[in-house]
Structures are given as structure tokens and as C-alpha cells.
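Q: What structure does this chain adopt?
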Amino acid sequence: MPVIQPDSLQPTGMDQKTPWRCAVCGFVFTGETPPKGCPVCHSPSPEFVPDAPRTQLTYDGKPFDVLIINGSTHRAGNTGFMADLAEGALRERGVSYRRYNLTGHHIEYCWCCYAVRAESCTYPCRNKNDDMPAFHAMLAASKAVIVASPINWNGMSARLKTFLDRTTCMENLYHLGKPGLTEGKVVGILVNGHEDGAIKTGMDIWLNFEQLGYIMAPFGIAFRTHGSAFNSKTDREFFQNDELIVRHTRGVVNNVIEMLQLGIEEKLKGKLVPVTE
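A:
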């Protein structure tokens, strides 16, 4: 992506040498600190990260309990706020977790090997060139997943949809008569947006995990919208000061933890009959 450097943001001193990249659109600014906002996509300053060559994600194999996935293009936006709340609740309970913002990772579209023939869709995934193999390994290693998504056109984000498409190789293990890696694990879902589509988004995400054998935590979906009567620029302030989004997000995390403590995954091992499409 070409580097755009408007005249108003040109560095003025030799000491301003740190390149900052907007994680949303790729604009690069050089300065001691990130700019107040991105002049290209208008994302706020927290979306800027130090610009560095991207390396392929790897999983170190160390066990942990919960995988948090922020499926928003905006790593520090309203969906990120819900992920932050989830992190805080997990820390308070002493539950180990790892959190990833999909906007910071390279995940290619699914090659749709299954469409050629079922046997071609294998695990590990044939595409080993991006970050998804590491996510596959962490889905298998973790005991639960908490997924956060914005509402885009009454559905999940395109980034999250691509991520979930790439789990097909894990679902297809059942069709190939091989042991599954995800049945009996727990999922919690967090959704937010400007206006309509929260319940549909939550259910669309859930259907993907249901096909992988996950169990929804009781009261396992939290969603919050602001409303079409308001300008979207006011959403951030609304969510940051909304008591309901805090209470419901923390509630989902609590319910996921309570399910984990029952040890259901271990109790169900070898007892479930896979029913997937």
C-alpha cells in the first residue's frame, strides 16, 4: 500500500523518526507520537501502531483457558472496548487468556478445498502461508472462545467471517471420520453496533461455533446498540459510559468461566455424535 503523507503531517524535526501506521487503512505518519487522527480514514489516534514488518503468527504451545477474538477492523473501537472489558473480567478471576485483534493479522480467504472434494479439506489447513494455522492451534488448545464483533450490514464483520470460514478444515474432521478438536468447548459472543442487526449477528456467529461442537454459555450473548437517531460519531462516548454494556459483557465472561469450571469438555469427550453440514 502506498504511503500517503499530507503536507500538514510532514515531520518537522530530525528527532521525529518513529513511523506510525494506521491499523485500519495503512496510512503511515512519522513523528514522536501518533497523530491525533488518521487523515485518510478518520480513525482516532489509538488505531495507530508502530510500523514494522509483519511476521507470521506462531503458537508457542503453552496452555491457556480462553481465546479472545476482536473481529473489528478498529482494534481500539467499540468492539475493542467490549474485548477490553472481557480481558479485565478474566484477569479478576485469574483465568488465563490470549487476546487477538484480527485487524493486526494476515488471514487469507478460504481456498474452498471442500468445494473440489471433501477429502481435500484437511487439517492442518493446506494454506500455511498466513496467520490462520496458529489460530487453528489455539482454538484446539484453549478451553473457550470469546468472540467480539461489530454489526456490519446486519451481520458480522468481513474479517470475522473470513476467520470463521477458515475453520472449515476443523469442522471437516468429523466428515472425514477423524477425531475432532473442538467439541465440548465453550463460546461467548459480544456484539455492538450503531443500530440494527445485533441478534442476527450473534446468531450467525453462534451457528459457526455450533457446527464445531462448541457449547454456548448460558446467557452467552451480550449485545448493545446506540440507535439510528444519533450520529455514529457519538457512539464511542455512549458505549464508554454505558453501564449496561459493562454489566452484560462481564456477565457473559462470568458465565463462560462458570461453564469452564464444570469441566464439561472433558466429561463429554468421546460421547458426542457429530451432526454437522
